[in-house]
């Protein structure tokens, strides 16, 4: 996982071959669900969705999609933009979105920096980055998505007073993110007690990755930063 792609994404995009059905979904349905970054973003992101929504939330790197889909099911008045460059994960999400008839999800299957740069200023009500690739080797830390430039991107897109949420079970990445966000003038850490960063957010669905981490003795940390 050492190849660099456009923007800040590193790693492989493809794993096992898709089934013919999922290949067809990716070819026929993803274009309908995907953001079209070749056209200017609408001033009001709520118009991106077929459903009537009151808020718009971004999830960068949704992996297996458990969190994205759960949040969309339980919050039908919220529009969700999900970004995931890994083909297998995107195909799984497209299958669920089509199968369940979601009308409050839009997708993007490339580098998240493209979406963050495309979004209008102060257009997001909430942004998540959950259990991202931690690049645990020190020589690879420069590949971590959380850095000054990408925090600038988040800060531009998130509405003042609203939140950026980050979760990880890798202590070095938790410390890294906490330091970078606390050093960034646009964000303040919202935690007041230890339970605020040890406890998942309300409505949190446990994911397969989180369950695996717990089995292996790693504990998730849940950081909330307010866009000042």
From TrEMBL:
Main EC class the enzyme belongs to: transferase
UniProt catalytic activity: guanosine(46) in tRNA + S-adenosyl-L-methionine = N(7)-methylguanosine(46) in tRNA + S-adenosyl-L-homocysteine
Classification via Gene3D superfamilies: Vaccinia Virus protein VP39
Keyword Repeat (UniProt): no
EC number: 2.1.1.33
Keyword Manganese listed: no
Binding locations of S-adenosyl-L-methionine: 59, 84, 111, 133
Annotated signal sequence range: none
TM ranges: none
Molecular function, one GO term: tRNA (guanine(46)-N7)-methyltransferase activity
Keywords for this protein: Methyltransferase, S-adenosyl-L-methionine, Transferase, tRNA processing
UniProt similarity note: Belongs to the class I-like SAM-binding methyltransferase superfamily. TrmB family.
Function noted in UniProt: Catalyzes the formation of N(7)-methylguanine at position 46 (m7G46) in tRNA.
Name of the protein: tRNA (guanine-N(7)-)-methyltransferase
Species, as recorded: Roseibium aggregatum
């Amino acid at each position: 996982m050492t190849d660099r792609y456009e923007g800040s994404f590193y790693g492989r995009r493809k794993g096992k071959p898709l089934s013919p059905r999922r290949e067809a979904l990716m070819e026929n349905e993803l274009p309908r669900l995907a953001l079209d970054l070749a056209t200017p973003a609408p001033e009001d992101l709520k118009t991106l969705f077929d459903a009537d929504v009151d808020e718009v939330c971004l999830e960068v790197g949704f992996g297996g999609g458990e969190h994205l889909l759960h949040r969309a099911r339980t919050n039908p008045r919220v529009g969700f933009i999900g970004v995931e460059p890994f083909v297998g994960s995107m195909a799984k999400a497209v299958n669920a979105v089509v199968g369940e008839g979601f009308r409050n999800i839009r997708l993007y299957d490339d580098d998240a920096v493209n979406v963050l740069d495309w979004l209008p200023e102060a257009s997001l009500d909430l942004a998540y980055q959950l259990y991202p690739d931690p690049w645990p080797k020190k020589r690879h830390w420069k590949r971590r998505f959380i850095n000054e430039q990408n925090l600038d991107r988040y800060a531009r897109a998130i509405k003042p007073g609203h939140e950026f949420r980050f979760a990880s079970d890798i202590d070095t990445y938790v410390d890294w993110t906490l330091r970078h966000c606390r050093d960034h003038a646009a964000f303040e850490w919202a935690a007041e007690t230890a339970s605020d960063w040890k406890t998942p957010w309300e409505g949190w669905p446990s994911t397969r990755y989180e369950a695996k981490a717990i089995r292996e003795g790693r504990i998730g940390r849940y950081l909330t930063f307010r866009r000042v």
